[in-house]
Amino acid sequence: SSSTLDVVLLHLFLQFSAVILALCAASVNAFTPLARGPVVAQSRSRSQPVMEMSVFTEASEKFQGDYPNFSAKGWGPSTKAERWNGRHAMFGWAFIIGTAHAQATGLLPDPATMLDMKTWGGLAQIGGGATISNERAIIMVANMHAFAVGLCATFAPLGYMDTLLLEDGEADEPAYGVMPKFDPGMTAAAEMMNGRMAMMGLITASGYSLITGTPFMDTCNLWLGGLLFPSA
To answer: Nearest Cα to 55, choosing from 82, 77, 81?
Structure first.
């Protein structure tokens, strides 16, 4: 049956995710920053481990050599970029939950009504002469406003804001490794871990939706046990 197939696919997808996480955990050394400081000459024995350049450090240095101007601003494989990607992912989940709440409580007027091409023009078209729904248009405009606020914060941040890019001469944070040290509360390590889980959640939910053909919002609602809105 369809429900049995969904359970099997979900089980297989979770197993696949567990394998990916296990591989990431096994490669923790690849994301661990190299120790800095004076190097003390020591005699090496066969049993003594040899410090090698990590994959993350090697990628960062290669990007810095190829694109020094971009690297100086925090673009590419950097802790600054990872932190902001995590923040965007967490904001995305907040927006997803808000959208589901609006759907469940009827806050979006006439959600299924399709926009009139003559009134709205090409912005309402999705190809083949079809137009987007009123619900989709409202969500899109709300995202456009959030994007505009993000652009303002990027190019003209206020003094108390954390900048999106590194300032001139500002050094990037050290890499956190696969599993940051547990540091609860409003801390940088907690934010980094929450951001990583948000990014992984988006990837997992999107992948499940694509594999099973389930709408993304229905996938989120399914995984939350129907807490977002009643299932059809």
So the answer is: 77
